[in-house]
Write a structure and sequence with these properties.
Chain A: InterPro entries: Ald_Oxase/Xan_DH_a/b, Ald_Oxase/Xan_DH_a/b_sf, Ald_Oxase/xanthine_DH-like, AldOxase/xan_DH_MoCoBD1, AldOxase/xan_DH_MoCoBD2, AldOxase/xan_DH_Mopterin-bd_sf. Chain A: Residues 18-124 form the Aldehyde oxidase/xanthine dehydrogenase a/b hammerhead domain. The structure holds 2 protein chains of 2 kinds. Chain A is α+β, with helices and mostly antiparallel strands. Chain A folds into 3 domains: 24-123 and 185-262, Alpha-Beta Complex (Aldehyde Oxidoreductase, domain 3); 278-386 and 398-441 and 592-747, Aldehyde Oxidoreductase, domain 4, CATH 3.30.365; 448-585, 2-Layer Sandwich (Aldehyde Oxidoreductase, domain 4), CATH 3.30.365.10. Helix content of chain A is 27%, strand content 25%. In chain A, helix 4 packs across helix 5, helix 7 packs parallel to helix 8 (352-370) and helix 12 packs across helix 13 (564-573). The chains are: A alpha+beta, B alpha+beta.
């Protein structure tokens, strides 16, 4: 039985349902200290004085550290190196770390954090990402507060619009989105002889290694990073765990004691990264026959006080700024600007959900203006094999957007034509999207992955990769890949904790890249071992190695079968290679910064979402009844796990569309808990129909592409398009809260 | 400090502690039962749900002074001699687990539901777990797993 494409139970499920999985807060070390971070209460201020004289002698307090205690460099390394670990003279957002307090117990550190007096001199802050670019606004980064600017130039934009019969132009805005991983950020730093060992919740151990090494002034080989079971991440544990780990590590380094730092929920929401709020000006035009002919976009992200990952989030958003459509004339300008607000970063979709909301709202409105069915209109414009994207990338492999669109339409597309008299209005909406898998040209130097496989004497297998399990199912999918490749039973294959000492730097676990990158590295690592097994099995079976078939714990030749455990045992007697490293380098990508032309990604996943909603005209509430989510992600390795990714992504998309509104006033986030920041509950979960169309990607492991982020991206516009279909209200500011719907209804009273 | 006597997973416990200490802290730090998780510390996420005298409660909102004489069941008390509870089996089979952090609390809420209502409707299941936030799964497979566990219990006692 081939186990690829089968619903194999997750490797980590039993540990998790019994409560035996060890998350970071479940670990303790002898003599361990508890760490608390002292944070800025002002969005922009000079620090005049920090008075720790009284507090440092508090009972139970061991040490209080500021930037002056950093032995290495005071910088959290990401892209532009502008963020300090601990503020020096100036603070730039509410929640910015200023000092670290370590004590014998949580209560002592908590109490001390309230007693330390910091004297500030307030400076003029800037909160608006558009105003930040104006000449007379306060400057917190460079001359213009612009961290990053990207552009696409294709065809002739002026002529393009001249050729159009219908042109629409609108402004779209989107809110912050909080990751709301249920496990907050947490790390333990343990000094062990000359090495600083870091345990914790994270996506990217090699980022953490780099940060701790820079802060402590230690070489990489003296910083070991071990990922513990990670309770959700969604991008929110990509770069910011570098801060958390470095904070714990600095205390551990100075005191030579283990140091634990677990963020409270409020602290986590206040100070950790989020999805960027966006301001988007979108102009698009079509010819009368329904061809998209010109698109002009200005895309602005509110990056917050430090650049962190914003330059690459912005880049990905720029690449996807026209959606999965052909368009001959394109002009895109995008900016990530600095404001005195919490730094934003990676969140599932990485700059594409915001722009896809604008793209798909425009597409819906254009179809409406053309009096054309939205699906028919999209079918005229979507990318197919042989087409070029707006960046000039000729699509050669695996692009089945058309199939997803047709499949979704077949499952449930019936556009509402008649007006119901009821105060409950029903509507349907569609949205397409595509997504460049992997880091692409924006993170080229990281586009690599390593794997280590070791078949042990009893036929069991350990493997290690440099990417991480954070709930998405990587451990299970890669175990299937290794088991299938070696022919060894799935039950005998285990992953070992992701640890920087086991595998080379494999880049981050982001960009839906783990299956393709680590999967390919793993297959390469299996090759020499497979050869050992095949050679020995051939001898035992009396046939040529090329005739041996390995599957499900047996080696076979014609009708003869022998147990692989016996073959493995024979391999050990013969001293054959039974453990090996694999290395995979991503295919070529390119990008011309001046024109925005090139091959930004080596492959794209695509998808179509159809949403059915009910809008209550009395309350403004939107109820999502059903989402049909059809995705093209290449070959699906584990359908159950893949469906789980879609269902979870869809509900995060529903939250993004309707509920999740972060109220930031004067740089202060007002809703720092789950009674005020509203997440979808079980009662908000619609019926979700998840379907995959599978067109194998020749470069992917067993034909797989990437999936993780894809399910969220198109959900919000499918819902807002359905709201339009139901009520005629075009929501251009996410989320579509009842208040906004009611205000819109009030402004057009009498029209229904 | 107060002395309290209570039962955890059928085992008698007697501890001396601050009256305002939370049950969550007692379970995790005093008794080493780290299966119960803290997600918010304010009773908003449900990750710390345990069963107290037959009812699901967020253990972060239960104080030591309320515990005397109570009977507590945590995720560690659900499987006996390595035999998983039908809920645990169903969660595995249905693929209802992703990051897993909400799962102990989710299963305890579901357990409390099935104890009082052995064959709940889909709406009753959704209602019973509506205080347990899960950010990974979209709840779809969790609801299916609870339906499946209910059937398993009815068929096999």
């Amino acid at each position: 039985m081939n186990i690829i494409g089968k619903d194999i139970p997750r490797k980590d499920a039993e540990l998790k349902v019994t409560g035996r999985a060890k998350y970071i807060d479940d670990l303790t070390f002898p003599n361990m200290l508890y760490v608390k971070v002292l944070r800025s209460r002002f969005p922009h201020a000079m620090i005049k004085d920090i008075d720790i004289s009284r507090t440092k002698n508090n009972k139970g307090i061991v040490t209080i550290l500021t930037y002056k205690d950093i032995p290495g460099v005071n910088v959290v390394p990401v892209v532009l190196m502008d963020q300090p670990l601990l503020a020096e003279k100036e603070v730039r957002y509410i929640g910015e770390p200023i000092a670290l307090i370590a004590g014998e117990d949580k209560e002592a550190t908590e109490d001390a954090s309230h007693e330390i007096k910091v004297e500030y001199e307030e400076l003029k802050p800037i909160f608006d990402p558009v105003l930040a670019m104006k000449r007379n606004s306060p400057k917190i980064y460079g001359k213009d507060n612009v961290f990053s600017h990207h552009r696409i130039r294709r065809g002739n934009i002026k002529r393009g619009f001249n050729e159009c019969d219908i042109i629409i132009e609108h402004r779209y805005t989107t809110s912050y989105q909080e990751h709301a991983y249920i496990e907050t950020q947490g790390m333990i730093a343990v000094p062990y002889e000359e090495t600083m060992v870091i345990y914790g919740s994270m996506q990217c151990p090699f980022y953490v290694q780099d940060a701790v090494s820079k802060i402590l002034g230690l070489p990489y080989n003296r910083v070991e990073v071990i990922q513990t079971a990670t309770g959700g991440a969604f991008g929110g544990k990509e770069d910011v765990p570098s801060l958390v780990a470095s904070q714990a590590a600095l205390i551990a380094f100075k005191t030579r004691r283990p140091a634990k730092l677990i963020y409270s929920r409020e602290e986590d929401i206040e100070s950790m990264s989020k999805r960027h709020p966006a301001v988007i000006h979108y102009k698009s035009g079509v010819t009368r026959d329904g061809h998209l002919n010109a698109v002009e976009v200005k895309y602005i992200l509110n990056a917050g006080a430090y650049s962190t990952l914003s330059p690459i989030v912005l880049w990905r958003g720029t690449v996807h700024a026209v959606g999965p459509y052909k368009c001959p004339n394109v002009k895109v300008d995008s900016y990530a600007t600095a404001t005195n607000t919490v730094p934003c970063g990676a969140f599932r979709g990485f700059g594409t959900p915001q722009i896809t909301f604008a793209v798909e709202s425009q597409m819906d409105e254009l179809a409406n203006k053309l009096n054309m069915d939205p699906i028919e209109f999209r079918l005229k414009n979507i990318l197919r094999k042989g087409d070029r994207t707006v960046t000039g990338h000729l699509i050669k492999d695996s692009m089945e957007l058309e199939k997803t669109l047709k499949k979704a339409a077949q499952i449930g597309w019936k556009i509402k034509k008649e007006e119901s008299k009821d105060y409950i209005k029903r509507g349907i909406g569609v949205a397409c999207n595509y997504y460049g898998v992997g880091l692409g040209a924006g993170g080229k130097h990281l586009s690599k992955a390593g794997a280590m496989v070791s078949v042990l004497g009893d036929g069991s297998v350990n493997f290690a990769v440099g990417t991480t399990e954070m709930g998405q199912g990587m451990e299970t999918v890669l175990s299937q890949v290794a088991a299938s490749e070696l022919g060894i039973k799935y039950e005998k294959v285990s992953i070992v904790l992701t640890d920087t000492t086991r595998v080379p730097d494999s880049g981050p676990t982001v960009a839906s890249r783990a299956t393709v990158m680590s999967g390919n590295a793993l297959i390469k690592a299996c090759k020499p071992i497979k050869k050992s097994i095949t050679d020995i099995a051939a001898k035992m079976l009396g046939c040529a190695p090329s005739k041996v078939k390995l599957a499900n714990g047996f080696a076979g030749f014609e009708k003869k079968r022998i147990n692989l455990d016996d073959v493995v045992s024979e391999c050990f007697k013969e001293k054959r290679i039974m453990s090996a490293q694999g290395w995979y380098k991503a295919p070529y990508t390119s990008w011309n910064k001046a024109t925005g032309q090139g091959k930004p990604y080596f492959i794209y996943s695509t998808g179509t979402n159809i949403a059915k909603v009910e809008v209550n005209l009395l309350t403004g509430e939107v109820l999502v009844k059903k989402i049909v989510a059809v995705h093209d992600v290449g070959r699906v390795i584990n359908p159950q796990t893949a469906a789980g990714q879609v269902e979870g992504g869809v509900l995060q998309g529903v939250g993004y569309a309707l509920f999740e509104e972060m109220d930031s006033r004067d740089g202060k986030i007002q809703n720092t808990n789950f009674s005020t920041y509203i997440l979808p509950t079980s009662k908000d979960s619609p019926q979700i129909v998840s379907v995959f169309v599978e067109d194998p990607y020749p470069e992917g492991p067993f034909g797989a592409k990437g999936l993780g982020e894809q399910p969220l991206i198109g959900v919000a516009p499918a819902i807002t398009n359905a709201i339009f279909n139901a009520t005629g209200i075009r929501v251009r500011d996410l989320p579509a809260t009842p208040e906004k719907i009611i205000l819109e209804l009030d402004s057009r009273q009498g029209k229904f | 400090m107060i002395k309290i006597k209570f039962t955890v997973n059928s085992e008698e416990r007697e501890i001396v502690t601050e009256p305002t200490r939370t049950l969550l802290s007692i379970l995790r730090e005093e008794l080493g039962l780290t299966g119960t998780k803290e997600g918010c510390g304010k009773g908003e996420c449900g990750a710390c749900t345990v069963i107290m005298d037959g009812k699901p409660v967020p253990s972060c909102l239960v104080l030591a002074c309320q515990l005397d004489g109570c009977e507590i069941t945590t995720i560690e008390g659900l499987s006996e001699n390595g035999n998983l509870d039908p809920l645990q089996k169903a969660f595995i089979e249905e693929g209802a687990v992703q990051c897993g952090f909400c799962i102990p609390g989710m299963i305890m809420s579901a357990k409390a539901l099935l104890m009082r209502n052995p064959s709940p409707t889909e709406d009753e299941i959704k209602e019973a777990i509506s205080g347990n936030l899960c950010r990974c799964t979209g709840y779809t497979k969790i609801v299916k797993a609870i339906e499946k566990a209910a059937k398993m219990i009815i068929h096999h006692g």
